[in-house]
């Protein structure tokens, strides 16, 4: 397992690849599956609804590599405190991560919060709800 500082640095590196000509708010993310890492950065579009967050890009990169269960996610943004994922990203985390999976939220100044998928999206809508 990769240490927290290394994962935060990988997310910072991913952040530098963000395409954010409209918001100027770059975000980087890295997910782990075993010893593998998959990065993502937010990519904006002039049609804002077509933009994609860093968290989802990283998760989808892992899924495209054949993984459907993500171990951890680390997200970095230029925020005053640890970054907070949007609701859509939280829902996608719920789809591909266990409720107890580690979620590390950080900023470039060293603020870090470690939490879980269940803690950031209590009462999540899951596959099981479709069978109710």
Automatic annotation (TrEMBL):
<dbReference type="GO" id="GO:0072527">
    <property type="term" value="P:pyrimidine-containing compound metabolic process"/>
</dbReference>
<comment type="function">
    <text>This enzyme scavenges exogenous and endogenous cytidine and 2'-deoxycytidine for UMP synthesis.</text>
</comment>
<feature type="binding site">
    <location>
        <position position="53"/>
    </location>
    <ligand>
        <name>Zn(2+)</name>
    </ligand>
</feature>
<keyword id="KW-0862">Zinc</keyword>
<protein>
    <recommendedName>
        <fullName>Cytidine deaminase</fullName>
        <ecNumber>3.5.4.5</ecNumber>
    </recommendedName>
</protein>
<comment type="similarity">
    <text>Belongs to the cytidine and deoxycytidylate deaminase family.</text>
</comment>
<dbReference type="InterPro" id="IPR016193">
    <property type="entry name" value="Cytidine_deaminase-like"/>
</dbReference>
<dbReference type="GO" id="GO:0008270">
    <property type="term" value="F:zinc ion binding"/>
</dbReference>
<feature type="binding site">
    <location>
        <position position="89"/>
    </location>
    <ligand>
        <name>Zn(2+)</name>
    </ligand>
</feature>
<keyword id="KW-0479">Metal-binding</keyword>
<dbReference type="GO" id="GO:0042802">
    <property type="term" value="F:identical protein binding"/>
</dbReference>
<dbReference type="InterPro" id="IPR050202">
    <property type="entry name" value="Cyt/Deoxycyt_deaminase"/>
</dbReference>
<dbReference type="InterPro" id="IPR006262">
    <property type="entry name" value="Cyt_deam_tetra"/>
</dbReference>
<feature type="binding site">
    <location>
        <position position="86"/>
    </location>
    <ligand>
        <name>Zn(2+)</name>
    </ligand>
</feature>
<dbReference type="GO" id="GO:0004126">
    <property type="term" value="F:cytidine deaminase activity"/>
</dbReference>
<keyword id="KW-0378">Hydrolase</keyword>
<feature type="domain" description="CMP/dCMP-type deaminase">
    <location>
        <begin position="2"/>
        <end position="128"/>
    </location>
</feature>
<dbReference type="InterPro" id="IPR002125">
    <property type="entry name" value="CMP_dCMP_dom"/>
</dbReference>
<dbReference type="GO" id="GO:0005829">
    <property type="term" value="C:cytosol"/>
</dbReference>
<dbReference type="InterPro" id="IPR016192">
    <property type="entry name" value="APOBEC/CMP_deaminase_Zn-bd"/>
</dbReference>
<dbReference type="GO" id="GO:0055086">
    <property type="term" value="P:nucleobase-containing small molecule metabolic process"/>
</dbReference>
<feature type="active site" description="Proton donor">
    <location>
        <position position="55"/>
    </location>
</feature>
<dbReference type="Pfam" id="PF00383">
    <property type="entry name" value="dCMP_cyt_deam_1"/>
</dbReference>
